[in-house]
Amino acid sequence: MSKNEWKNDGSLDAVVEMPAGIVDEFFSRLNNICHGEVSSKILK
To answer: What is the reported pTM?
Structure first.
């Protein structure tokens, strides 16, 4: 994680840098952990 910030409501804003080849697996695992209650976007 290159940046993270906990919000007052308990949510976490984070910037994660990774190789393009593992992005799909990362989002799949993140969705499983968060039970689909996650908001994400790719920054370029």
So the answer is: 0.74
